[in-house]
Write a structure and sequence with these properties.
single chain; 296 residues; alpha/beta; eight-stranded mixed β-sheet; two-stranded antiparallel ribbon; 10 helices
């Protein structure tokens, strides 16, 4: 038994499958995004965990498994909302009790970094924070406002620049289809601008989906119409064709994606674009994921 108290449901990025999930908060400090179903259950109301509980969990887990733990993911929705003092305390405890750890990561809401100056981000990097996952969702301010993201092109760009300056690896996620039919092109164009401006080390795209229904989302975005697979491919082509990246690992292989894309941008840009264009013009030959396999 790992001596950590978990509050279900627990979420983590796909690449953290082998990481120790260490909750330092419960839920999300914002929790207003109308497209998000991750932290809506009553038991996931936002709470900051006490120092004593976090440090005790680190110490006891380290005593049991410290030599075998290589990666730690600080949960839940945006651990970087915590004061820098508290984060440094947590990072120090991980170094002390889990000496084999080589990567410490977290989700990050961009707005939370506005409260931290560059020197604080630098301190976190020096203390062992190595990777941050940022759900940018879109680079378009109209789309962001419509889905109550609480962010703008500028706030997301500012956060990504701070992290990059500190040497923290950034993994950015864009939601394909989030602007619906009405704002599809501007969503693609401005999302590409955001990514080009910030040059993240990792980039992923998912297709917006609503396993629990669209009622909450449509209440604030009544004009939204879901894109067909064909329209999603057109939006992806518009997005990819505008990307000017030096060396960013790109993944579009989440269960929500009809077309699986993997590569490095810009080296593989033309190959990826060719795959998308085939899906647009010859979907039967594009090896699309069948609807049943999307698991949604």
């Amino acid at each position: 038994m790992i001596p950590i108290r978990y509050v279900e449901p627990v979420f983590r990025p796909p690449s953290e499958a082998e990481s120790l999930i260490l909750p330092v908060t419960d839920g999300c400090s914002w929790n207003k995004c109308t497209f998000c179903e991750m932290y809506t259950a009553p038991q996931k109301s936002f709470r900051v965990r006490e120092d004593d509980e976090i440090i005790d969990s680190i110490r006891r887990t380290g005593d049991l498994y410290g030599k075998s733990i290589r990666h730690v993911f600080l949960a839940d929705g945006d651990a970087l909302v915590l004061p820098t003092r508290k984060l440094l305390l947590i990072l120090e405890a991980i170094r002390k009790h889990m000496p084999a750890v080589r990567r410490i990561s977290s989700y990050c809401r961009p707005g939370n970094l506005r409260k931290k100056d560059q020197s604080e981000i630098d301190q976190l990097a020096a203390a062992g924070l190595t990777m941050v996952y940022v759900g940018a969702e879109s680079g378009d301010n109209q789309v962001l406002a419509a889905v109550k993201k609480g962010e703008t092109f500028d706030t997301t760009g500012e956060a990504l620049d701070k992290l990059g300056t500190a040497g923290i690896t950034r993994s950015v996620m864009i939601l394909n289809g989030l602007g619906g039919k009405v704002w599809s092109e501007q969503h693609a164009v401005n999302s590409a601008k955001l990514v080009n401006l910030t040059q993240p080390e990792f980039l992923a795209t998912l297709v917006v989906t609503f396993p629990k229904g669209e009622q909450r989302f449509r209440a604030d975005f009544p004009a939204w119409e879901a894109l067909s697979p064909h329209e999603l491919f057109i939006e992806m082509e518009q997005f990819l064709s505008r990307l000017e990246l030096k060396r960013t690992v790109f993944r579009s292989d989440h269960a929500s994606n009809w077309l699986i894309l993997k590569g490095t941008l810009g080296a593989d840009k033309e190959r990826l674009l060719a795959a998308v264009r085939q899906a647009i013009h010859d979907p039967q030959g594009a090896l699309l994921r069948p609807a049943w396999a999307r698991g949604l």
